[in-house]
Amino acid sequence: MGHAKPVESPTANITYRVLNPDYGVFERAFLPAIAAGLGTTIRHFFANVTTRKYIRTIEYPDNPVEYPQRFRGMHRLVPREDGKPRCVACFMCQTACPARCIHIVGGETADQSIEKFPIVFEIDELRCVVCGLCVEACPCDAIRMDTGIHPVPVTSRQEGLFGKRDLLGIPSREERKSGRRDTTSRPPGTAAGTGRKDRAHGDGGAGGSAGGFGEH
Prior knowledge:
This protein folds into two domains: 48 residues; 137 residues, Alpha-Beta Plaits, CATH 3.30.70.3270. The chain has six helices and seven strands; from the N terminus they run ββααβαββαββαα.
């Protein structure tokens, strides 16, 4: 291997090392590195044959892995008590999305407490980068990422496009466990509106300033 010698800088009290690039033929052929890599491979091979130290076979999909609690999963639209989405077509999630995978078309409604509603609400899950900014930006807790599931494999890009009806039909992780839909739950506070929170186990899919439900 090359040798390094300390050199003092003439302009500052700094000592640095200059590596000698004159490697031998043995080093230039990468033989030491190849031997070290083969040694690691052989060591792992015999450890797996005798003790299965480095092998963990998962029988998927018959025995799927339980995702950790902080795993967000794909999006869903939260319904009101009448089954309609909480979304008021404010375009906050569409604006915050860095992947531009959310498309909303708003329309007027006779309900004065809502003003607008989404005629079209689509998410291209193939473009989504799972950043969760749409959830944080939503002031009405209309969109969450608390499903605990990932999008299924598709054979065309069109199949990766989820519309309003698709997103409303996806239950949360807790709803799947209880077997019923919850339209009145208050989301947990997040760093967006109620101060920095301990989110070691995820944020529960809450959005915006206290999820649009006022202060906690």
